[in-house]
Every structure is written in structure tokens, then in C-alpha cells.
Amino acid sequence: MLPPSYQAITQRPVLKLPNHARVAVWVVMNVEHFTFYCWSTTAVKIFKTMLTSY
Fold first, then answer.
1. Are 44 and 38 in contact (CB under 8 A)?
2. CA distance 7 to 17
3. Which residues contact 43 (CB under 8 A, 6 or more apart)?
4. What is the arithmetic mean of pLDDT over 10-31?
5. Under 8 Å CB-to-CB from 17, ≥6 apart: which residues?
């Protein structure tokens, strides 16, 4: 699926919301999962220096 072609904001059709609303709110939950693996002592040393540099 290709994104729609560019259209200037002044050339777009008017956005009509239900009940003549002027503001729309879209609530989205972002879930990210990162796993930290210690494969070698080098990875642990890099992680510790990154943590203490703050």
C-alpha cells in the first residue's frame, strides 16, 4: 500500500468531525519491550559506562 500523494493543507478537503467538534483526540498505547543480554564482559562494561556518564 503506497502512501497518498502530497497535497498542500490549503488544497485538502475540510475535515468534518461528528457533532461539529473542533478538536479530535486519538489515544494510542505504545508498548515496547527490550531484553538486555550479557553475552560478554565487554557488553557489561559498555553498559556501566553509559549508565554512569549521566
1. yes
2. 20
3. 37
4. 91
5. 24
Q: Which amino acid is at 19?
A: N
Task: Give the model's confidence band at 15: pLDDT under 50 very low, under 70 low, under 90 confident, else very high.
Answer: confident
Q: How many residues in the chain? A: 54
How far, in Å, CA of 3 to CA of 26, rounded?
Answer: 20
Amino acid, single-letter form, for residue 9: I
In Å, how far are 4, 21, 46, 52 from 10, measured between CA atoms? 16, 20, 50, 50
Answer whether 24's CB lies under 8 Å from 17's CB: yes
Estimate the share of the chain in helix, then strand, then coil, as percent rounded to the nearest 5: 35, 0, 65
